[in-house]
Amino acid sequence: MSANTFNFEAVKSIYFFEMARMRRTLLQSVISPVITTSLYFIVFGTAIGSRIQEVGGVSYGSFITPGLIMLTLLTQCISNGSIGIYFPKFTGTIYELLSAPVAMTEVLLGYVGAAASKGLIIGLIILATASFFVDIDIAHPFMMALFLVLTAITFSLFGFIIGIWAKNFEQLNIVPMLVVPPLTFLGGSFYSIDMLPPFWQAVSHFNPVLYLVSGFRWSFYEIADVNPVVSLGMIGLFLVICLSILGWIFRTGYRLRS
Amino acid sequence: MSPIQMSPIQPNSGKPPVVSIRNLTKVYGNGFKALKGVDLDIREGEILALLGPNGAGKTTMISIVCGLVNPSGGQVTVGGHDVVRDFRATRSMIGLVPQELTTDQFETVINTVTFSRGLHGKGKNPALIEQILKDLSLWEKRDNMLRELSGGMKRRVLIAKALAHEPRILFLDEPTAGVDVTLRRDMWQVVEKLRATGVTIILTTHYIEEAEEIADRVGVINAGELLLIEDKTTLMKKLGAKQLRLELTHPLEAVPPGLESFDLKLVDDGNALVHDYASDETHGNGQGSRIAALMKALSAADVPIGDISTHQSSLEDIFVKLIGERA
Predict the structure, then answer these.
(1) Is any Cβ of chain B less than 8 angstroms from the Cβ of A9?
(2) pLDDT one-digit tens code per residue, B105-142
(3) CB atoms < 10 A from the CB of A174, how many?
(4) B198, B203, B289, B300: which has the highest count of C-beta atoms within 10 A?
(5) Which residue, A79, A103, A248, is CA-closest to B121?
(6) Which of B149, B148, B173 is nearest to B159 (CA)?
(7) Sheet holding B19-27, edge to edge
(8) What is the CA radius of gyration of chain B?
(9) In the CATH scheme, what is the code of domain B19-237?
(10) What are the extents of the domains in chain A?
(11) Membrane-crossing residues (chain A) (predicted)?
């Protein structure tokens, strides 16, 4: 290997090593989110949803589908992205990554690529599951895929940052457990923010998840709380913020190299 | 005893050193100075043992060469490449077996070793991995998860991982800490085999007999400084002082006349006479007769000898003495 070649072999190794972890923990990483989401559909979509009138011209069950996919995608990408890099730190095997001829960008590509792939696979499984319970139309498949991929990458990056920052399992879980659910629930996954009083509508605009859910839902039913272009811009902004933080981490060796 | 000759940098033996460390310093975030300007050249193909007490800076030095720790000052080159600027080139050449038994508990032996090779940018080579696992008696355990293995087996896995990318330089950080005799023997066999293929091996240890047994050269580090580095045999000769001790049946007031030329000292309130000499004097031409001459002279002077003993410094004594002098 010459001095400055991109270490593709290493990226591949990390990626498949991580994907193998997913196969090994199939029950926890795939079956569990699918069951959870199915429960949401049964309770909100079928049981309660049947008594709720249409929202923006679509049935309530269909309306909540994009939000539910986003909820799972965010949680999965953050936890996969964080555990991937946190685990070697915790066990000490990180020595191998740090002493290998890999740049941190390659380490990042391997771990974030795997975390995002897992998130996407689960997102698609949930979409398929949802189609058993409710009618799904996808008006803009390309935009839907774009929202899905961008969100998966962005939040896997965010997870990677948490994984580097976390010093223990509590810190590792604090964001996916305590921060993501309220943001998702209050981000219009289960309702249109039109239904809220004006004050809470204004507050909702500070919630980044609102933009994800709204844009993603627009790609299905062309109904949105905010302009889809703004949604896309916000995801792009968050992506840039995550990349900048990671750039700083890799330059300084923060919590990686003393 | 002759004064210890400090020679931190060995004269160039013709070939450029495979690892060159110049004025290396490391100050950790909490202000602790782990390395205070270390200079060291490691020769291609040698086995170098770095001795030093816990916290001496051995692991920090290795960690900087391998890329785990950023240096605060100075320069390290491996195969002529700077370890910071050309990290890909230097790290491809190096294999590291860390001190701690850090393993991916839920992975199988073969997967974790194959992963190490990929991480170093090398394509798959199942035949090589098989050979490495066989050499380390791990082949039967290849499909076992690491958490099912004993401590000694995990140590073998770490060595296998370090060898998976065919390094030219192997760092073994305290390889035999908590390791049984069988593994130690297997490990030295692997080390010998590697040396035969031209791999340079650097090991840290605080078991002096280990350094005595296996190393070509020995370096002593204490409190962030390289106190000396020397060929093991030269070191043993140079520093391996011998002492002849004569216990007397009754105390003397002074060294008896006729014995002045023998450099005798009266110690323990006149109860014993001691004679210091270098260990190679006994084997040297004519020097051996010096002891014989001393014996004759002692007899002639009618010195009341009760008992005779000699004592030779081991590497351990040398080590303790060096550390003590600097403390």
Answers:
(1) yes
(2) 889 999 999 999 999 999 999 999 999 999 888 999 99
(3) 13
(4) B203
(5) A103
(6) B173
(7) B33-42, B19-27, B73-78, B81-82
(8) 25
(9) 3.40.50.300
(10) 8-45+59-252
(11) 26-48, 68-87, 108-130, 142-165, 172-193, 229-250
Token code pair at residue A117: 């792939």
At residue B251, does pLDDT exceed 50? yes
CA distances from A99 to A56, A88, A238, B87, B151 (A): 55, 13, 31, 9, 23
Torsion sign over Cα A169, A171, A172, A177: positive
Range B241-313 has CATH code 3.30.70: yes
User: Is the ipTM above a cut-off of 0.90?
Assistant: no
Q: Please name the residues between 100 and 119 in chain A that touch chain B, using a CB distance below 8 Å.
A: 100-103
d(CA B304, CA A2) in angstroms, rounded, equals 75
Q: Which amino acid is at B181?
A: V
Residues of A in contact with B81 (CB under 8 A): 3
From the list A17, A91, A258, which residue is nearest B105 (CB)? A91
